[in-house]
Every structure is written in structure tokens, then in C-alpha cells.
Amino acid sequence: MGYRILAEATMVVHFAYLAFVVAGGFLAWRWPRTFWLHAAATAWGFATILMGLNCPLTYVEDRSRERAGQPGLPPDGFIDHYLEGVLYPDWSTPLIRWLVATTIAIAWLGVLVRWRPPRIIPRRH
């Protein structure tokens, strides 16, 4: 029973992590200190895609499910199991990735605009 709860909790944390990667940059508009946490989470997310790194959350969920007597995640991992073909069709994965990257870029651009120091315009006498 404990491993099943751990697997479910890990799945929830994984979804929260993905939501934070997609939309967390917008939190930095209000709370600038969250930007660095978002940058680290985003870097890890892109590294798992671009370099094929294994996600520790996927590992924990997979092993917990197996120890609970459930089938583990497929070799393709968390996103392929829970999102591709469920929330969006498999063929649209490249588009979804570009939309996520664009959303992150817009959020970061907003951080730069919102938190840049104001320009001081000298007065002419």
C-alpha cells in the first residue's frame, strides 16, 4: 500500500513540476526570486528532452509501481504515458514542444521587461 501511495504522490508531483516548467516563469512577474527556481526546472526539463537524461521522478514512480505490484511506466516515460495520446495526439509533439518553449520565452521576456531597472532620463534646464 505504501508503494502505491508513493507512486501516486510522485505522479502528482511530476504533473506539478511540468505545470511549473510551462507556466512558472509567469510567477516571477510577481515574485522575482522564483525566476531562478524556474530557470533550473526549465533547464532540467530541456536537458531530459535534448540529452536524453533520465528524470528521477519517473524513476521513483516506475519503481514504486513495480513494488506495489502494478505495471511500471513504459520505457518512453512519464510524458509519453500520461500526456501524449491522452491530452494531445502523438503527431503534435513537436508543436507542443515549440508552444511550451514559446510560453517560457514570453514569460522570461516579461520578467526582463517588468524587473529591469528604470531608465533615468536627465532633465534639461
Can you put this structure into words, describing what you see?
The chain is mainly alpha-helical. 69% of the residues lie in helices and 0% in strands. It is built from 5 helices and no strands. The chain has helices at residues 2-30, 34-50, 56-67, 78-82, 93-115. Helix 1 crosses helix 2, helix 1 (2-30) runs antiparallel to helix 3 and helix 1 packs across helix 5. The model has no long low-confidence stretch (mean pLDDT 91).
Beta-strand content: under 5%
Rg to the nearest angstrom?
19 Å
Shape: elongated
Which structural class should the secondary elements be placed in?
mainly alpha
Helix content: 55-70%
Alpha-carbon distance between the two ends: 77 Å
Major sheet: size, sense and barrel closure?
none
* Pattern of helices and strands: HHHHH
Helix segment tally: 5
Overall pLDDT level:
91
Instruction: Give the total of beta strands.
Output: 0
